[in-house]
Amino acid sequence: MAHVVAALDQPSSYKDSQARGRDRKLQTELLSKSTTLYVGNLSFYTTEEQIYELFSRCTSPEEGGGIKRIIMGLDRNTRTPCGFCFVEYYTHAEALACLRYVGGTKLDERIIRCDLDTGYTEGRQFGRGKSGGQVRDEHRADYDPGRGGWGAQAQRAEIERRREIEERYADAQEGPGAVAGGGEDWEETKGATTEPSRKRERSPDDEGEGRGEARTKLEETHDA
Amino acid sequence: MSYHRRRNNHRGYEDDFRREVDETPEQKLKNTIIKMGEVDPVQEVPRLAKQLREEPALNAPVIAEGFRIAVTEQPFKIPYYAALLRELYDPPADAEESTSSSPTLGRQILEDFWKGFQASLDKLVWREMRLSIQLFAHLTIAEVITTQTMFELLRSFAAVLDEFGVSHGRAKKAALCASEGLMISGSIIKENPSINVIDIMSTIQAYIESTIDAKKLVQPTVALHSDSVTVESADELLDAALSALQILNASDFAQTSDSFPQPYINAPRPITAPFELPSVLVPPEVIELDSLSTDSGEDALVKKEEWPEFYIRIFDNDVSPDPTTPVGYAVRTGLLDLIDIFEVNRKECARLLLEFPKWTLPGTFKPRPGAPPQEPVSGKDWQLESTLIETILSTLFLLPESSHKATYYIALITELCKLSPSTIGPAVGKSIRKLYNLLADGLDVEIALRFVEWFSIHMSNFNFQWVWKEWMPDLELSLQHPRRTFMRRAVDFEIRLSYYDRIIKTLPEPMQNPDLKLVPAQAPGPDYEYDDPANAYHDAAQTVLNLIRGRAKADDVIVHLQGLKNSLETTDSDTNIDSVIRSIAVQSLLHIGSRSFSHFLNAIERYLPLLRNLAGGGISSGGSPNFEARKDILDAVIAFWKYTKHMIVIVCDKLMQYQIVDPTDVVAWTFLHGRQYVSTQDSSSLEAYQWLLLKGALDKANGRVVIARKRVTALRKEEDDNAARAKAKDQAAMEVDAETKPDVPIIESAALTTALKAFATLTREQKSALSRALDGFVDCLVSQTKPNPRAGEVILEKSWHNRVNWDEKEWLTWETWGWYRHFCRLYSPYLRNYAQTLGTVSFAKVGPSGDPAVELFRKIWNDATGQEA
């Protein structure tokens, strides 16, 4: 069906412009299987639960899918949300469905944007801008109340709500295992039914084992 | 790179596709065909015909490919492609005698197009087949194709309906091919005295009559007491097609020209001999062979089946066309095709939908505001926007499932609103009101839930502006009346997408009063039971909380809990201390993880050994895994998140993912603890929130089987490939030294053994979850040991007509019936597989036969699992 119109779930062209040569090939391959979305233009006050609510509309649990995890993008210095996140699904099809149905619609009264992402790697939850936030915000000229602008009219309750959300991630850690994996596919040995006493603790940094190296190279794909 | 440039780049991403890079001349030619008619199709047809004829290196297969794409992806242009082919079918007017001996361009294209049709037929690509048949039907009227061979083609499709054991999906698609072809070409076919078009119609009719049981299960409005298969506010797709055909036939297809554009109609009869369509046979469906079966021998391959399609009517026949009439059917099916084909790009889809009138006969729709006025055509003059919204919503509301995800249809309506807010907006508003009214008249519970989903997401995209005031009087209705549950859920869903204070402000002041039970008294949030210093276990819980907060090792927490248990048991002998310990541990973990979804995941992952220990019945006298322990864990979840119900669904999902609890545990617990949601309920019931928990658990169980199956298939393929490679190598080796080697038997790899074992375990789990769900519904509605008198009452006609006086319990029982019905039809492919065992086990627990509730319960089960009553 790509003859008459372009599909909305085609990978965005802008990322191509950043990777070169072999990297680009690798990136295309990663994207063609990717289960992770980069979600941008979020309000700084949008919560993970709001994100979950909207993005769960694209899940296919009956196919073994679902939302694996959400990684909120944080300002490197202040540890406050800075307007982007990663949503990771269990299947590629779910990520594509978001590009078709969710990208360009509103969440928390802002039009959000979705892009396929090569996958979360350690450290990517933090903004890379000079000030600690997202690079794109440093070039923002317009006033944007959802992204740090307070506005004199903000009510006391609203200020309180915002402060609560801002403080939410004060405990955000860095380093391996700082970000939860979200749970893997079913395994015979994991259940409580078998050998409850000898359970191996699943170390959070199991995630991405063996793939980490390939991904690090591609870390720079987003101006997170 | 600057922000501004980046932005441009992003916008460029959509534009990129329109800029055809490195177009080959062939590609260019194809595109010219595909783009035909975007300005004025009538004028463009002769122009394009001329251009194609003048093409220097003419390549009929390339042009035919252009036609194939154009016809199957832009069905609204089909009549014009027929006109173009008609034009090309004759030699050019100025052709010399000598050239006319070779086949004309049109004939070459048609021959090639037919090859493409044959290929779609071989692969059973139904939409391509159906749309190609539409083209053939137009060409029959244009006298390019013979009536006899066209009729034979339609007959081959009708013959599918007579196949033994034909699936509904196959029968439906074949019937649509036959009936749409006949609708378009009937007038000329009927002129052929050797043809009897009634044959096709009676075949369709006979088929429809065989689908009565299935139809009952997917009607959008429910009358549990009624056996009627027609519903007032909806039309079934095949019924509509047949009805349109009957109307056409009664007038010898005089209305065809009033229903389908025929831009070729004034062309003279072609001088070239008409094309004879080769005869075809619709090939049988490919049966996927899969040697995997469950341990008890059931076929484990689940195939989604299709159901009769009831499309809800929202507007009157003078606002949107009646799809049971020829022109109404043509409009409806044209829109359905657009919505389906352009699913890949909802923005383009919205644009094309708004341009749809351009492709219909003049006067079909009212002119757009600002357009030159036109003489209204009597019996037409419909409102485009209402028709569009009605068609999209009725597709969204198909049961048991819409063909694409609900979000697609919701996002499509959003795009329409963005493109034309002043005209689409009112149609959306009217649709909401109409559906809201239907809630009181038996709108199916699943549709009601999708309605809430649409409403909340739509409002989230349009500043949450809704005139709530008009529903104010309905707050007098019973708390569980479908209109009140709709309002309550709408507010709840809106809060989830936004936040409490924002949504409360969108309601009129009187409706904000928490006593009216529309809005919660406070913003949703966690409730850590042991926070209260007055709580008997406050101090104990604090010690656990401090350990977890200090990131103590899981083993240390387990040791601490053990000590706590021992000391509590000495002071408090009446309470189930095991349960208390589990509740403290789980609530404390949830408390630590309550800041956000990822905080929750972090807390859980850090303490998986602790949770597994608890779930396995550790820190208790037994030490063996037991349901009690898991029930306690789930109870702690509900206690902690009781004010934020969707968190319960999220937490349950992850507890299953981490294999702390099994889907069967969640199913059982959902039914057992239903009454915790609605305090007034004395017998078990199931309402929407519980349904979502139940569905989450069943989908998890089913999804795991899907993954396990894929894994086995992949490993088997890998081994087959390896074996083939080894064999090839052996053979190569043998050619060198003639010594024969004995065949080495292929040994199943350890990975495959593990995968097969997992598959066996998971299908068992799947069966057990489904079985437990059926048991749950038995308990709610037809239990022998604790009968629910209301279950028999609410299904009586007299009672239904008196529903204005129903109380909460009656409405809840009615809703439970609705979810039972939905459970049966949604999971029907799985239930069918296990029907024998599941039915035997659960039906042993039902009340006496002859009881109307028991009879209905069985009938729904039998209809869904395809068993004779």
Q: Mind explaining what this structure looks like?
A:
The complex is a heterodimer of chains A (224) and B (869). The radius of gyration of chain A is 19 Å and the shape is globular. Chain A has a four-stranded antiparallel sheet with strand order 2-3-1-6, covered by helices on one side. Chain A has a two-stranded antiparallel sheet with strand order 4-5. Residues 192-224 of chain A have low confidence and may be disordered. The two termini of chain A are 33 Å apart. Helix content of chain A is 25%, strand content 14%. Chain A has helices at 13-16, 21-33, 48-55, 92-101, 135-138, 156-167, 212-217; strands at residues 36-40, 67-74, 81-89, 106-107, 110-111, 113-117. Chain A is α+β, with helices and mostly antiparallel strands. Chain B has four domains: 10-94 and 102-220 and 228-258, Serine Threonine Protein Phosphatase 5, Tetratricopeptide repeat, CATH 1.25.40.180; 310-370 and 379-516, Serine Threonine Protein Phosphatase 5, Tetratricopeptide repeat (Alpha Horseshoe); 529-661, Serine Threonine Protein Phosphatase 5, Tetratricopeptide repeat; 697-731 and 747-865. A two-stranded antiparallel ribbon of chain B has the order 1-2. By secondary structure, chain B is mainly alpha-helical. Chain B has 36 helices and two strands.
Ordered list of secondary-structure elements with their pairings:
The complex is a heterodimer of chains A (224) and B (869).
Chain A: H1 13-16, H2 21-33, E1 36-40, H3 48-55, E2 67-74, E3 81-89, H4 92-101, E4 106-107, E5 110-111, E6 113-117, H5 135-138, H6 156-167, H7 212-217
Chain B: H1 3-15, H2 25-34, H3 41-54, H4 60-73, H5 78-89, H6 105-123, H7 126-141, H8 147-159, H9 168-189, H10 198-209, H11 212-217, E1 234-236, H12 237-250, H13 256-259, E2 310-312, H14 326-341, H15 346-354, H16 384-396, H17 406-419, H18 421-438, H19 445-461, H20 482-497, H21 500-504, H22 538-549, H23 554-571, H24 577-592, H25 597-606, H26 608-615, H27 627-640, H28 645-657, H29 663-672, H30 688-736, H31 750-781, H32 789-793, H33 797-801, H34 808-826, H35 828-843, H36 852-865
Helix pairs in contact in B: 2-4, 3-5, 4-6, 4-7, 5-6, 5-7, 7-9, 8-9, 8-10, 9-10, 9-12, 10-12, 12-14, 14-15, 14-16, 15-17, 16-17, 16-18, 17-18, 17-19, 19-20, 22-23, 22-24, 23-24, 23-26, 24-27, 28-30, 29-30, 29-31, 30-31, 31-34, 31-35, 35-36
